[in-house]
């Protein structure tokens, strides 16, 4: 499926969907260039280059492996939601689909391209009602956001720095984390009854995905010599994960780094180190996603896995 065809799958209520593919590409490239230019201006390169030269690539390699483990968990979550349709696809196919979608996400903002490709291919292969496929995609992405919110509340309440700053008891947000989980189940129960049986497994897998990616960013920080304030770095990373979904730049680059730079003004984290770790995270994501360029997927179900 071509880049142009993917952009045609954008929902009609999105402003970008009213623009021509050429204009969309120009706007995204412009915003990406502005974001990168702003980052280059803000960063202290005299401090960053020594950090990068001393980086321990062994930790970066471990982070790369764990990042791809998180994609295996994401694929399992997607498969759980598909079971409710029901739409049977082998895990090997869904994993290839996930990486192919990740490749599209390198060029389209906010994961829209990847989701559009998934919807198109699954609809083509099974002639399933688009509404069911869109429900699967919505819940797959929504359960990820739910897990991020849950972990933000959990880490925020467990941060001694935050609790001391606001004079609140340790673990003060743990109850909110439980409410977030209960609220997610309530949304499934009220609006997506067909999928409610899948919620426990999907939410557990989402927690696994996001927790693994938090470990990835902490390993990248360790690779450049940062070992303190892990909770705060993890917390900001989760917030940046929400921000990176916004359809503003190509592949989300620049948005996550902006969040780290802004958070460094208020939290005990080093902006240059945080931004460098975030750029390394993008590099790992791009390297992993590039595998999708070599994957071709049939438009009809295989007779065997």
TrEMBL record:
It is found in: Cell membrane. The keyword Transmembrane helix applies. Keywords: Cell membrane, Membrane, Transmembrane, Transmembrane helix. It comes from the Bacteria. InterPro entries: L-PG_synthase/AglD. It is a multi-pass membrane protein. GO terms for cellular component: plasma membrane. Pfam families: LPG_synthase_TM. The chain crosses the membrane at residues 55-73, 93-112, 132-156, 168-191, 197-221, 233-255, 275-297. This is TIGR00374 family protein.
């Amino acid at each position: 499926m071509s880049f142009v065809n993917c952009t045609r799958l954008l929902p009609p209520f999105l402003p970008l969907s009213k623009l021509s593919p050429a204009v969309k590409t120009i706007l995204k490239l412009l915003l990406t260039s502005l974001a990168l230019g702003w980052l280059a201006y803000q960063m202290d390169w005299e401090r960053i280059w020594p950090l990068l030269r001393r980086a321990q690539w062994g930790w970066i390699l471990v982070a790369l492996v764990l990042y791809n483990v998180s994609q295996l968990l994401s694929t399992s979550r997607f498969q759980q939601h598909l079971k409710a349709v029901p739409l049977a696809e082998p895990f090997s196919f869904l994993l290839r689909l996930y990486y192919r979608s990740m490749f599209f996400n390198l060029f389209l903002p906010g994961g829209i391209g990847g989701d559009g490709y998934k919807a198109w291919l699954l609809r083509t292969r099974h002639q399933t009602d688009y509404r069911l496929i869109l429900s699967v995609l919505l819940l797959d992405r929504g359960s990820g956001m739910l897990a991020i919110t849950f972990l933000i509340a959990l880490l925020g309440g467990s941060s001694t720095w935050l609790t001391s700053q606001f004079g609140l008891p340790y673990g003060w947000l743990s109850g909110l984390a439980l409410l977030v989980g209960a609220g997610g189940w309530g949304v499934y129960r009220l609006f997506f009854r067909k999928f409610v049986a899948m919620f426990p497994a999907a939410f557990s897998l989402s927690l696994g995905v996001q927790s693994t990616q938090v470990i990835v960013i902490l390993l990248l920080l360790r690779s450049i010599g940062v070992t303190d304030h892990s909770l705060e770095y993890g917390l900001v990373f989760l917030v940046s994960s929400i921000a990176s979904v916004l359809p503003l730049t190509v592949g989300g680059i620049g948005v996550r780094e902006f969040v780290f730079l802004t958070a460094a003004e208020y939290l005990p984290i080093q902006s240059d180190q945080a931004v460098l770790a975030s750029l390394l995270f993008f590099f790992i994501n791009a390297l992993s996603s590039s595998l999708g360029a070599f994957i071709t997927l049939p438009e009809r179900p295989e007779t065997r896995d």
